[in-house]
């Protein structure tokens, strides 16, 4: 039984790792600085102490945490040498990275917890916009500070329990193989390598339920909320400014949806042999890692006018 996992996705990146290491390092520094700057502005500027901006700060805090979960390990693995020791999978060669199973499970937990909580935060943000536009006279009561705190706790605690129970199932699965065509670990990585039979099937089934509850249900609520907002703004002659406040949130939501779609594409083709297919799988996983974390601060920092004005004011003070 294996106690480690070999990430073979790095094989495709080994020839250009001299370019990718400084590139990803600069991307990571940009994410850290931009996320922390926007969160700092939201916390310190009283004018931004509103539910919408609080949810934006929570989403960016998740993005900050996700980057710290992925990029340091990605940079280290890109810069390290080939895997040591025999492997039991169908691929071999330089550029593969061996990861202890405990570290693999920890990374899988954090990535899925952050992903699920981000979708739920986007759902809470869509609820905030829905109430703000359709119930403006009762908005202050419906989105009180206490209810905002309760929504934040729910968006973090529910995924914590959901993904935590999944990890409790995965940690008991024995691994009969150790090679997977990935750049990072997720629950699918462990179940695909397991030979536990019925226990693995239960873990897969629960993983599907967790995906529905943590991703598809919040995504469905977001689509319903913004569709209702669009209907209200079009057929009830609401101002375009009300609809304009939703555009950055819709852009971030679509960014998350497309990233998840790339991840699902990666899962379907990562077990297929062939250099070109494996290269597509690796590119898909890179898109899943890089695009969401870079896109979020750009949208919220440049397209949300209130945040943009406060950022410019802060930069002028710093000068």
TrEMBL record:
Annotated membrane topology: Multi-pass membrane protein
Q: What's an example of a GO molecular-function annotation for this chain?
A: olfactory receptor activity
The protein here is known as G-protein coupled receptors family 1 profile domain-containing protein
- Name its species: Knipowitschia caucasica (Caucasian dwarf goby)
SUPFAM superfamilies xrefs: Family A G protein-coupled receptor-like
Keyword Isomerase listed: no
Cited Pfam families: 7tm_4 (PF13853)
Its cellular-component GO annotations read: membrane
The record places domain G-protein coupled receptors family 1 profile at 34-300
Keyword Transmembrane appears in the UniProt entry: yes
